[in-house]
Design goal:
There is one protein chain. The chain is mostly helical. The protein is 63% helix and 0% strand. The protein is built from seven helices and no strands. α4 packs antiparallel against α5 and α5 packs antiparallel against α7 (139-154). The protein is elongated and about 55 Å long. The relative contact order is 0.11. Mean pLDDT is 80; it is low at 115-155.
Length: 155
């Protein structure tokens, strides 16, 4: 979904396919001299389809590499450099939104709020304690959510 949105961006054209050495003969030499590996959005898509990314982090690194390569090869006055800046900014915004949405979905899945107890042992508690405790998840659920959130934040 993120890669598809990037492909539709008006600045995407230089990043859609691998660089053709026939048109830019020194591209791969410049990348290699700077410790970079080639990457493009078609390769990112193919790696997604073939499930080659082991984690979200691998996917993010690959997409960022597409734009980093453009920063390395092109002077900051070149249109491709500016297009890479725009694409990179869009990706970072999309990625941030994706992570927020994913974290919300995870939280809803892990922490289903329980309805307030009617009567029972909570009936004699002061109202302020009863309402607060009814809305808090059990300690084991909190621990589970904290562990899951830590894994998500690491991505």
């Amino acid at each position: 979904m993120l890669a598809a949105k990037l492909r539709k961006n008006k600045n995407a054209k230089p990043f859609l396919h691998p660089v053709d050495a026939a048109f830019i003969p020194d591209y791969f030499k410049v990348l290699a001299a700077n410790g970079c590996l080639p990457m493009d959005l078609a390769t990112v898509d193919r790696n997604l389809d073939q499930e080659k990314f082991k984690s979200d982090r691998d996917f993010v690194k690959a997409v960022r590499r597409v734009f980093y390569n453009a920063f390395v090869y092109n002077p900051d006055t070149e249109p491709v450099f500016k297009m890479a800046e725009a694409m990179s900014a869009e990706f970072e915004g999309l990625w941030a939104k994706y992570k927020i949405d994913r974290d919300k979905a995870l939280a809803l899945k892990l922490l289903p709020f329980k309805k307030k107890a009617s009567g029972g042992s909570h009936a004699n508690r002061p109202a302020s304690l009863s309402s607060a405790s009814a809305e808090l998840p059990a300690a084991s659920e909190q621990d589970h959510f904290a562990a899951a959130s830590a894994k998500v934040d690491a991505a």
